[in-house]
Amino acid sequence: KAGVTQTPRYLIKTRGQQVTLSCSPISGHRSVSWYQQTPGQGLQFLFEYFSETQRNKGNFPGRFSGRQFSNSRSEMNVSTLELGDSALYLCASSLGNTGELFFGEGSRLTVL
Amino acid sequence: AQKITQTQPGMFVQEKEAVTLDCTYDTSDPSYGLFWYKQPSSGEMIFLIYQGSYDQQNATEGRYSLNFQKARKSANLVISASQLGDSAMYFCAMREGWGSGGGADGLTFGKGTHLIIQP
Predict the structure, then answer these.
(1) Which residue in the set B93, B106, B110 is minimally distant from A48, CB to CB?
(2) Position B102 pLDDT exceeds 70
(3) Among A44, A49, B30, B49, which residue's CB has the most CB atoms within a 10 Å radius?
(4) pLDDT score of A2
(5) Under 8 Å between Cβ of A18 and A78
(6) Among all residues of chain A, which has the CA nearest to that of B100?
(7) Which residue, A107, A99, A83, is CA-closest to A21?
(8) pLDDT (average), residues A66-83
(9) Is residue B107 very low, low, confident or very high in pLDDT (cuts 50, 70, 90)?
(10) Beta partners for residue A49, in sequence order
């Protein structure tokens, strides 16, 4: 059974640009959530989607957005990139709100 | 106040010894789930074990067990017979509203413990 797949694995952007990250969940999983990991702030919840609906959003500015498609694949977008957005972005999928989360390997974003 | 506290930033342990990683949590929600994840240097978060707040018995998964002390709000991870491959960051996490139809706020993670197993 394939795990959670995130693309791209690594990317470098400059300040002011935007970026889109993609996540394909485990087959059959309808919930996808996103987390940001930085050395200073640790792991922080970004948002969670279930059946194409955003269920909740963490404490991040509006520059961070996401969506989920009918096949449960999800994308997150960060606009007007700042240096502080450099981080490992982790996607996780689960069966629903009572299932453990299974994480992908992450997308490592560097903003110059 | 921090919801998840891991007081051990780093630990060195001899191979084959048992390891206890500490985790305390803070919540007023009677329904919650507690999780432990392992993060090797590759970055992927690997699910290890979970405990629901209403579970009567401590969770076990192979060499991993969770020492759940609800009154003390403690959920320590115990790794028996440690191996070199256990070297990684370990994160304790909580999801409030677990199993009650809620839980839509995502996981709250602790700062992690860097475990190094020495031969």
Answers:
(1) B106
(2) no
(3) A49
(4) 73
(5) yes
(6) A98
(7) A107
(8) 96
(9) confident
(10) A32, A54
Record the tokens describing residue A18, joined without a space: 């935007």
Mutate to test the interface with A, among B90, B91, B100, B107 (most CBs of A within 10 A): B107
End-to-end Cα spacing for chain A: 37
Q: Strand, helix or coil at B84?
A: helix
Which of A35, A97, A105 to mutate against chain B (most B CBs within 10 Å)?
A97
Tell me which residue in A92, A97, A106 faces B103 most closely, judged by beta carbons.
A97
Asked if residue A98 has pLDDT above 90, the reply is no
CB-based contact B98 A98, cutoff 8 Å: yes
Min CA distance, B92 vs chain A (Å)?
11
Tokens describing residue A36: 């940001």
Question: B36, exposed or middle or buried, with CB in 10 Å at 0-12, 13-18, 19+?
Answer: buried
**In the 8-state DSSP scheme, what is residue B53?**
T
> Where do the H-state alpha helices sit in chain B?
none
pLDDT band at A32 (very low <50, low <70, confident <90, very high): very high
Which residue in B49, B23, B25 sits closest to B36, CA to CA? B49
Q: Are B103 and A56 in contact (CB under 8 A)?
A: no
Bridge partners for A110 per DSSP: A12
Residue A44's nearest CA partner among B111, B113, B38 is B111
Q: Which residues contact A12 (CB under 8 A, 6 or more apart)?
A: A109, A110, A111, A112
